[in-house]
């Protein structure tokens, strides 16, 4: 049986139920794991139409066999897909990046529980809160807890029998007021567990109950005239309220909610997760997802939600999202448009953006090749190119009031200036200030030479100017037979519009876009390079004309004098004997007389 016949048979056997499908190659290696609402429709779509993206076409060619697992609901398919991707690591599935162990806050399963941070989860009945993405958050919480509640830090077995037998003696912590001495029976188990319950609520972000308890304590001490104790409790209330003011970022009525947003570029997606409890952010984490098959933001966000809720054991029954995606069945989806809910969604998106910026800065230093590849992929997409613009050339004309018209060509390779390839052009065939004709000339001269010398041609040409200059450059490419073989665009200065050949409507790139920044850098560099050459040429022309205006001094004599004396100032200051030694007695007298009237 041929491969195509075998696949047709496998496709026809697929059910119309929700489930997870797996693609394998001829060697039995896993290629891809996907989920579907309708297995038959989804899997058949890979083979029934021409795939838009190259990577997907390559995947489809490699598929030799298909396996599937039927599940009751689409949300079950989500969870199963996520687990299988992590277990099987298929080549064409997205890559989730951050496989590290996170810190937890542990309330130990003991008669008088200790509270501490740990990275190891031991299944001994202890309670674990987290994981937290920052050790700083854990330390801040533990410092807050220790400042409010005196807890033991020793690891003694404080069983009732051993305490009654007087086996332990209080340590320095007791004398410093950091522990109330349960080891000698100075603190009851009930009182200690009351503190632990308050600590649970603080870790969950609910500070309201603790504040109310302390306020009642303060009132009781005040009524008993125990003002020192009342003041100590008041200090604790101040600490809690100060912490609450810092941590509460939204309406305290927003409780037990997960917030997810996504920022993406050509190669990666960044899903941010905020967990909200009593108006406070108790967790923030950004997941980096490497794309493999040009996945959409919806697909990446769906995968990110499933992964993060599983990883952080979230039981929240409501999620805030920027757009609708399928989540677990018993979870309510809210798409905030304004107010406190919208503000928290914006905060999550801002976190994702900052995370991406930090990652890009790190990558630029540690992995410049990946940084370059990402920018090239972004430019290819933004400018609708057929290939990555690894070699770009930009042209700019320079003339001031029609004098000394020149042009410049700057070259960028892999998004960086290649200064050894920069070229200047003196305009030869154009009379007067005619930018369009000048552009036509230099583009023709540049690429005629590259073709003659069989040098590599650029993937992209950038013309500094609007539709007029772009049309002039296109004429030269037409004559050379290069039109359609090299992508060409024009950039107008006023609003940074990008013009394409035969398209009257310009493209406006995002002002923060890296593609626009590269084009602007090209344009500015071409302008700087052209202006410098123009000034040098104009300056030399002015110097030469000052000498040529002297009776008996021609172009050759002027050049000889400049070669000998380096500047007009030195020629003016030179003695008659020195000038005679350079250009002869007759010319020397005329030059000396001119500068010493």
UniProtKB/TrEMBL annotation:
Domain of life: Bacteria
HAMAP family per UniProt: UvrC
Presence of keyword ATP-binding: no
Locations listed in the record: Cytoplasm
Protein name: UvrABC system protein C
Organism: Flagellimonas aurea
Keywords carried by this UniProt record: Coiled coil, Cytoplasm, DNA damage, DNA excision, DNA repair, Excision nuclease, SOS response
Family named by the database record: Belongs to the UvrC family.
Keyword Coiled coil listed: yes
Sequence ranges assigned to domain GIY-YIG in this UniProt record: 16-94
Chief location of this protein within or outside the cell: cytoplasm
CDD domains linked to this entry: GIY-YIG_UvrC_Cho
UvrC family homology region profile domain location: 263-477
Biological classification of the source: Bacteria, Pseudomonadati, Bacteroidota, Flavobacteriia, Flavobacteriales
The protein's assembly and partners: Interacts with UvrB in an incision complex.
Domain UVR: 208-243
Function: The UvrABC repair system catalyzes the recognition and processing of DNA lesions. UvrC both incises the 5' and 3' sides of the lesion. The N-terminal half is responsible for the 3' incision and the C-terminal half is responsible for the 5' incision.
Residues forming coiled coils: 204-231
PANTHER family: UVRABC SYSTEM PROTEIN C, UVRC/OXIDOREDUCTASE
């Amino acid at each position: 049986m041929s491969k195509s016949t075998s696949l047709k048979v496998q496709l026809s056997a697929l059910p119309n139920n929700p489930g997870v499908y797996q693609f394998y190659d001829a060697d039995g290696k896993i290629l891809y794991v996907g989920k579907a609402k309708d297995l038959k429709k989804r899997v058949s779509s890979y083979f029934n139409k021409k795939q838009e993206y190259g990577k997907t076409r390559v995947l489809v060619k490699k598929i030799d066999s298909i396996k599937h697992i039927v599940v009751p609901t689409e949300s079950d398919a989500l969870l199963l897909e996520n687990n299988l991707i992590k277990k099987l690591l298929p080549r064409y599935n997205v890559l989730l990046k951050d496989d590290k162990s996170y810190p937890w806050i542990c309330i130990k399963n003991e008669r008088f529980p200790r509270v501490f941070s740990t990275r190891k989860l031991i299944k001994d009945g202890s309670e674990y809160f987290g994981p937290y993405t920052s050790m700083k958050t854990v330390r801040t919480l533990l410092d807050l807890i220790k400042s409010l509640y005196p807890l033991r830090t020793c690891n003694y077995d404080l069983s009732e029998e051993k305490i009654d037998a007087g086996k332990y003696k209080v340590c320095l912590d007791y004398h410093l007021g950091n522990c109330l001495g349960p080891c000698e029976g100075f603190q009851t188990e009930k009182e200690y567990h009351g503190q632990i319950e308050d600590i649970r609520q603080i870790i969950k972000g609910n500070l309201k109950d603790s504040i109310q308890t302390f306020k009642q304590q303060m009132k009781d001490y005040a009524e008993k005239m125990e003002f020192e104790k009342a003041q100590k409790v008041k200090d604790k209330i101040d600490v809690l309220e100060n912490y609450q003011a810092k941590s509460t970022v939204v309406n305290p009525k927003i409780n037990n909610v997960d917030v997810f947003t996504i920022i993406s570029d050509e190669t990666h997606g960044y899903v941010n997760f905020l967990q909200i409890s009593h108006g406070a952010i108790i967790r923030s984490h950004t997941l980096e997802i490497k794309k493999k098959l040009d996945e959409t933001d919806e697909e990446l966000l769906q995968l990110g939600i499933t992964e993060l809720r599983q990883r952080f054991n979230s039981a929240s029954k409501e999620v805030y999202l920027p757009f609708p995606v399928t989540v677990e069945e018993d979870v309510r989806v809210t798409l905030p448009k304004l107010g406190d809910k919208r503000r928290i969604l914006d905060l999550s998106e801002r976190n994702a953006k900052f995370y991406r910026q930090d990652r890009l800065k790190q990558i630029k230093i540690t992995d410049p090749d990946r940084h370059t590849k990402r920018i090239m992929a972004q430019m290819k997409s933004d400018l609708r190119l057929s290939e990555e613009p690894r070699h770009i050339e930009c042209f700019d004309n320079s003339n001031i009031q029609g004098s000394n018209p020149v042009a410049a060509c700057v070259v960028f390779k892999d998004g960086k200036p290649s200064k050894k390839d920069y070229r200047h052009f003196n305009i030869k065939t154009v009379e007067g200030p005619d930018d369009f004709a000048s552009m036509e000339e230099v583009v023709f001269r540049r690429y005629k030479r590259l073709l003659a010398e069989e040098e590599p041609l650029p993937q992209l040409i950038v013309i500094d100017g609007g539709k007029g200059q772009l049309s002039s450059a296109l004429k030269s490419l037409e004559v050379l037979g290069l039109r359609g073989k090299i992508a060409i665009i024009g950039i107008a200065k006023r609003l940074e519009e990008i013009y394409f050949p035969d398209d009257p409507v310009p493209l406006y790139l995002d002002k923060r876009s890296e593609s626009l920044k590269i084009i602007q850098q090209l344009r500015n560099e071409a302008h700087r390079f052209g202006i410098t050459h123009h000034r040098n040429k104009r300056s030399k022309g002015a110097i030469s004309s000052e000498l040529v205006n002297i009776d008996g001094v021609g172009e050759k004599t002027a050049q000889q004098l400049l070669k000998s004396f380096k500047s007009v100032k030195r020629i003016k200051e030179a003695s008659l004997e020195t000038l005679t030694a350079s250009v002869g007695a007759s010319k020397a007298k005329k030059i000396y007389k001119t500068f010493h009237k």
